[in-house]
Specification:
By secondary structure, the chain is mainly alpha-helical. It has twelve helices and four strands; from the N terminus they run ββααβααααβαααααα.
């Protein structure tokens, strides 16, 4: 039974009055079923604020995520070295434990042999093509003027060019691969010694397959770190001072779970924590080199009676601290040569400016009348 709504059924405020008898009212997908009563169906749009309307339009928006007590929190899965079988599985886990340990062979000798072999194959095909061109130039020069006529006359040159095309593509692809491999950096000595010491102590592979001992053929997948002398010294000191406190400070729980220092004789440190320690040491040295010469010159000038300290003494102090500043930059940082020269010049200029103005900073003694 179809129901129509006329203008008389529309009440004030947008209500709709249906004068149809219904036994009970079921709202199912916008339909009403008839009954023996008269009902008024009123639709009221609730007043909503602007933020409420926004989040109603975006039902997937969540302001806060409240975890349910029934949700079971899963722990992070770590591949530990002791859980891997000895041999290649454990070696793969060790190389994957630190991105600086990803050292592999580039097979430079085989690259050269393959390139030379394919290069000479192309040379031979080139010579065959030259002989064929010279022979056709004597017999029928028109074959060299038209590719269609040459193909119709015979397919010898076409077959030769197809063979050259296949050989040249192989040669070119090998050249590209060799160029990419040549762009990889050699591993830093520190990383190479770490992997080599693991091979020496654990002996993960047999002698013939222990590739790490071919040092001249080893490349690193990650670009080499420009490590200063201080970085290497800090790492050596941490290894010598190996203790539970050191491992707790400079290693993360995941790294400690990967390697057991007692069974595997392997300690993995977090790189960022070591860099923070190195940065703190660098900051301390730089501040000391800035404050000490100023303090010494101040004391010399303040304690001098009616006369300035000798010029040679001032120049000597200036030269000593400038050299010390340059040495600290070279040993403790990764600064390049031109950066060290520019920084040393700026440092020396600061000291010279202080020396020129130190007379004005020292309080003058008033002579008794």
């Amino acid at each position: 039974m179809a129901t129509t709504v006329s203008d008389d059924n529309i009440m004030e405020g947008g209500d709709v009055q249906l004068g149809i008898p219904i036994e009970k009212m079921d709202v199912e997908r916008g339909t009403l079923r008839s009954s023996n009563a008269t009902a008024v169906v009123t639709t009221i749009e609730p007043v909503q604020s602007y933020p409420t309307r926004i989040f109603r339009r975006c039902p997937n928006t969540k302001l806060f995520h409240r975890s349910s007590p029934s949700i079971k929190v899963r722990t992070t899965m770590i591949r530990s070295l002791k859980d891997c079988p000895e041999g290649y599985p454990r070696l793969a886990a060790f190389l994957d434990s630190n991105e600086n340990f990803m050292l592999y062979r580039r097979f430079g000798f085989l690259q050269s042999r393959l390139l030379l072999y394919k290069q000479d194959e192309l040379r031979e095909l080139e010579a065959r093509l030259d002989r064929m061109d010279l022979l056709d130039a004597k017999r029928d020069a028109s074959l060299l003027l038209s590719r269609a006529k040459d193909d119709a006359y015979g397919s010898r040159r076409k077959m030769l060019l197809q063979e050259i095309d296949a050989k040249f593509k192989d040669y070119a692809s090998l050249l590209v691969v060799a160029r990419d491999l040549a762009s990889f950096n050699r591993p830093p000595d520190r990383d190479f010694r770490s992997v080599k010491s693991y091979f020496d102590s654990q002996i993960p592979l047999c002698n013939t397959e222990s590739y790490i001992y071919r040092q001249e053929d080893i490349i690193a997948l990650k670009p080499g770190r420009e490590k200063a002398w201080l970085d290497t010294s800090v790492e050596k000191i941490l290894q010598k001072l190996n203790s539970r406190i050191i491992r707790y400070i400079f290693s993360t729980p995941d790294l400690r779970a990967k390697a057991d220092d007692q069974t595997q004789n392997l300690i993995l440190y977090e790189r960022t924590r070591i860099e923070l320690l190195v940065s703190a040491i660098n900051l301390g040295f730089i501040v000391a080199l800035l404050v000490l010469p100023v303090y010494i010159l101040w004391q010399l000038t303040a304690n001098a009676e009616q006369k300035s300290p000798p010029t040679s003494l001032i120049i000597g102090i200036l030269a000593i601290f400038t050299v010390a500043f340059s040495g600290a930059l070279s040993a403790f940082t990764r600064a390049k040569r031109h950066e060290i020269l520019a920084s040393s010049a700026a440092y020396c200029a600061v000291l010279v400016v202080f020396i020129g103005n130190v007379k004005q900073l020292v309080p003058q003694k008033v002579a008794p009348s």
